[in-house]
Amino acid sequence: MNDQLNMNSGKTGDAVECLGMTFLSEDARRDHFLGLLAEKLKDPAFRSQEGFPQGTDEAILAMSDPPYYTACPNPFLEDFINHYGKPYDPSVKYSREPQTVDVTVGKTDALYKAHSYHTKVPHLAIVPSILHYTEPGDIVLDAFSGSGMTGVAAQWCGLASATFRHELEMDWKRQGKIAPKWGARHAVINDLSPAATFIGANYNIALDVERFSQAGRKLLDDLENDIGWMYETIHTDGKTKGRIEYTVWSEIFSCPHCSGEINFLDETLDEGTKRVQDDFSCPHCSAKLTKKKLEKLFETSVDPITGNVIRTSKRVPTRLCYEMGGKKYEKKLDALDLEVLKKIEELSLPTALPHERMMHAPEVSVVKTFGSDRGVD
Asked: Looking at per-residue confidence, does 119 or 253 come out higher?
């Protein structure tokens, strides 16, 4: 459930309004509603609802930010609807033609990309329907809200930029539709998935921009101090530092004629077109080759967490792509770059790193059969 999003309010020391009540700060608001929720959790009838979580009161309260979000059935929904909703009046006719506007929206918007979620719909694709079927201040319900994009869209109806509004109005005008009524709608969003409700709440609950910015900056500074050196390289001028964006690794193969090792990328990449050639010559014996004729090489090592011997494709770093002074550059790794990679490889893993196999996958051994890999239980 979300109230109107005000990106400039909600600071810890600022007075805030919630459900018609004014509190000295967000902390005061939270304490007030946490107290009400704690009392509600003592009600056996409330806890006997189907699907009520098995967690303790302390756990539910710790994961809740009432009245906006509760880790149990939200007892403040009625208060929300009474405060923001409009009593049903059968004498007032509601009529809307079907929404026929063709909506095509990409998935590059910064809000959409802030957090991934399966079957996620961009909020900008939802906005036209909310504008068409509702009025400013109406309540929009999404009982299967996923990551909360309906809530974001409801607020976007009042936060949209002048450029977005103009483009949408011109599009509707070309289709013979009247201009929409801009203004935020209130939203009640819900999902059975704990991950979805967590993401949706953080997408929609009012944000203290200053505190968020400070925390984010501290996190980035800590990361820079801890691992920033891993992303530094020296420009080809021999003195200026650049920021590595990514490293290109190449698989190593064996020539079927002379058994010489072949760095696939070095031998097949056309530097002019940046395309891999289909045919090339072995750098050792000059035999004409294709990738299908090559035999992949493997290396064995000891997993530092499990202690098991693992077998992986042999590969080496061949290119660095980096940024310096606002421009993109590419180079082959020099001695300093290789030294940094060696230092990274020798670092010990955190002791708290989980060591369970992903998705509880069974152990699989790998054997080599005629130059290919085959998993064997």
From this structure: 253
pTM of the entire predicted model: 0.59
CA distance 358 to 342: 27
Single out the residue of 16, 25, 2, 138 nearest to residue 74, CA to CA. 2
Written as six digits, the tokens of 192 are: 């059975």
Helices (H), the chain: 26-41, 44-47, 57-62, 77-84, 110-113, 123-133, 149-159, 162-174, 194-204, 209-227, 264-268, 335-346
CA distance 64 to 29: 13
Q: Is the peptide bond before 67 cis (omega within 30 degrees of 0)?
A: yes
**How far apart are alpha carbons 213 and 224 in whole angstroms?**
16
Query: Could you read off the pLDDT of 256-312 as tens digits, one per residue?
Result: 999 999 999 999 999 888 899 999 999 999 999 999 999 999 999 988 878 889 899
Full DSSP string of 48-59:
TSTT---S-HHH
Domain regions of the chain by residue span? 16-211, 226-354
**Exposure pattern of 131-150 as b/e (b: 16+ CB <10 Å)?**
bbebeeebbbebeebbbbbb
